[in-house]
Amino acid sequence: MLFWGSKRCSLKNNMSVASSYARALFEVVSADPTKAAVYIQNIKASLQSRGHLKLMPAIASEYQKLEIAAERRATHSRVTPEKERLRVLLGLYKKLVETK
To answer: Closest Cα partner for 40 from 31, 52, 28, 49?
Structure first.
């Protein structure tokens, strides 16, 4: 637990709130990327009305992590015919080497 002034704040709790906001923002932006600026303005207004504006940098950081993870998933999920053929050939080679 951390103490700021007279308020008792939990850093872990703030991070879970920030990650929740980031996940929600990521989902709506992924669904309709053309409205990303509107969504960001709306989330900023929502944070301001709740007094959570200080979470904006943490939300941005969590959002970037989600974007990077999505890019990595997309990169790793691409299977080309050449890669598949190589995988099969390596499997056959391993079986051949094991039988000797």
So the answer is: 28
Going by C-alpha positions, the residue among 11, 6, 12, 14 that lies closest to residue 52 is 14
Q: Per-residue confidence at 83, pLDDT binned at 50, 70, 90?
A: confident
Please compute the mean of the pLDDT values over residues 42-63 and round it to a whole number. 92
Average confidence (pLDDT) over 4-22: 68
Q: List CB contacts of 19: < 8 A, sequence separation 6 or more.
A: 62
Look-up of token digits 């904006």: 56
Q: Which residues contact 10 (CB under 8 A, 6 or more apart)?
A: 1, 2
Q: Where are the domains of the chain?
A: 2-99
